[in-house]
Design a protein that fits this description.
Blueprint lengths: L20 E2 L15 E2 L1 E5 L6 H13 L4 E4 L6 H17 L3 E5 L2 H6 L4 E4 L6 H8 L4 E7 L2 H9 L4 E4 L16 H10 L4 E4 L7 H7 L3 E4 L1 H4 L4 H15 L1
Amino acid sequence: MKRRDVPPHPRSLIKPLPFGISRPRERGGSSTAGAEFRLQGLYAITPDWAETRRLLAATEAILAAGCRILQYRNKAASDRHRQEQAVALRGLTRRFNALLIINDDVELALFAEADGVHLGEDDGELAAARERLGSAAILGATCYQSLNLARSAARAGADYLAFGSFFASFTKPLARRADTALLETVRAEIDLPLCAIGGITLDNAALLLAAGAEVLAVITALYDAADPAAATRQFIQLFEEKS
């Protein structure tokens, strides 16, 4: 797939925000994006909406309210439609100085000039993604409820590790469930940002933060909220209270 002829996202413009990006603790391994900054805060993930205008309107409200990490995920759209939506979202994230991560598709990440890619267990190797996207790309890995997967992903160069589903999820009702104790176990062993996902709401988010999650990935509680901007601000307030 041919890369679009647009300028790369200027990392020099990404400020060390308290609830999106911050400087990491020192850790070993190869030179990756994780060696330059450390993800933390609210991580909005898009739903499988076909209507791009609706998707952009909700996403704009979420970013304007302070979210600085966005993952584009659409399992239902055609390749061309996903390209169109990803490029449009790239425009929004540039405007709000936010990160754009693409779910499960290295080539789409290249096409949209995204900041990185998030890979599941069956979505390809992290090392291959790093080679394709370069050392500055952000690589996320889904580890479900497995410490062994987390260890393997860390060795392979992941910049953050995602665990879940912690609660019943409308997006993935049959997803494997994880226990909050896993976050404490992983945090004691692996110095990477830990992302919690799956059924996260304003009522249960604080429990995950207390267990060691630095990033909360949210779909339904943001995009299906009566007021996505207000929901975003409430999630961000939870991080402020935790700090």
